Amino acid sequence: MTTLDVHLTDVAATAAGLVEGIRDAARRFGRLGAVVAVSGGIDSAVCLGLAARALGPARTTAIALPDRESEPVSAELGALTARAFGAGFVVRDISGALEALGCYADRLAVVRRLAPGFDPDAGDAFSVEFVPATGEAERLQSFVLTVVRAGVTTRHRLGGRDFLTIMAATNQKQRVRMLATYRLADERNLLVVGTSNRLEIDQGFFVKHGDGCGDVFPLRFLLKSQVYDLAEHLGVPEEVRRRPPTTDTFSAPQSQEDYFYGTSVETGDALWLAYHDGVPAAVAAGLVGMAAEDVARFYGLYARRARYADYLMTTIPGEHR
User: Is the Cβ–Cβ distance between 302 and 140 less than 8 Å?
Assistant: First the structure.
């Protein structure tokens, strides 16, 4: 019988192998320690824990890179994780760099064209949201601009150029964060630990020359559900493990489910694993509790995203399709 088990069968052995991989990379590249850009999320927390085990807490540094749109809790959870593993903790606010690059102004121009009067100084906020298809006539992948003003939420469909403008500016956040991470790594002769997991790499949920950069990627073959398995084993603080995966790139709070995946973590992992393993949509539908036509739409989405990820993959060392 076909099953879709998205969890690790031997968490301790997996952790030991990943720790040794980080240790080997540090030796191979002649690095004295490691730095992890922490977001307050589960992936970076697990990478920090693995790095601390591999190279020692004193040789491991967490760097938080907030900007003026970041949730304050992100840096707080990053600091909590660093303390839990005994790692060093550094904060570098990147708001000034992003403002100089036009990140905020360029996105604001698009938002104000769709929502006249939008005023971030008055507490107005926005995000970009993934909208899965609900019928045959709809496209599988579309995006809307979600605007929150005085507690009222409105949604505006994003045209191709507007979407690209917002995302091009938003991607600068990840690139500036990586720039600051490598600045610290170069100063201290540290290994940069990339935090992307298996689905993020396969589906292109990372920014080229941004969070897709790194010297070693311990999570590259792990599903998100498996990252949670490791988090419990390593002792990642419960506050981090409880936090829903978030993008933390727009001024309005937003989950990764709304922004990119369109499903919960375990359902998304199971769907992608079924697609990857060639399980027919009709069979997978029964295993995940979805209609076969909806599963087929997700399969089509995964195939299209994988093709786009080929363009991004040059930043993942050693990745071959």
Answer: no
Of 59, 62, 32, the C-alpha closest to 47 is 62
pLDDT tens by residue, 2-28: 567 899 999 999 999 999 999 999 999
Quote the CA–CA distance of 49 and 57 in Å, as a whole number.
9
Given a cut of 50, the residues of the chain with pLDDT beneath it are: 1, 134-140, 320-321
Q: Please indicate, yes or no, whether residues 183 and 118 belong to a single structural domain of this protein.
A: no
Distances (CA, A) of 290 to 182, 255, 263: 43, 21, 11
Q: Are 301 and 271 members of one domain?
A: yes
Range of the domain at 95: 11-99+165-315
Closest by CA position to 271, among listed 257, 255, 285, 256: 285
What pLDDT shows up at residue 262?
74
Contacts of residue 303, defined as CB under 8 A and 6 or more positions apart, other chains included, come to 275
Instruction: Dump pLDDT digits (tens) for 204-216.
Output: 889 999 999 999 9
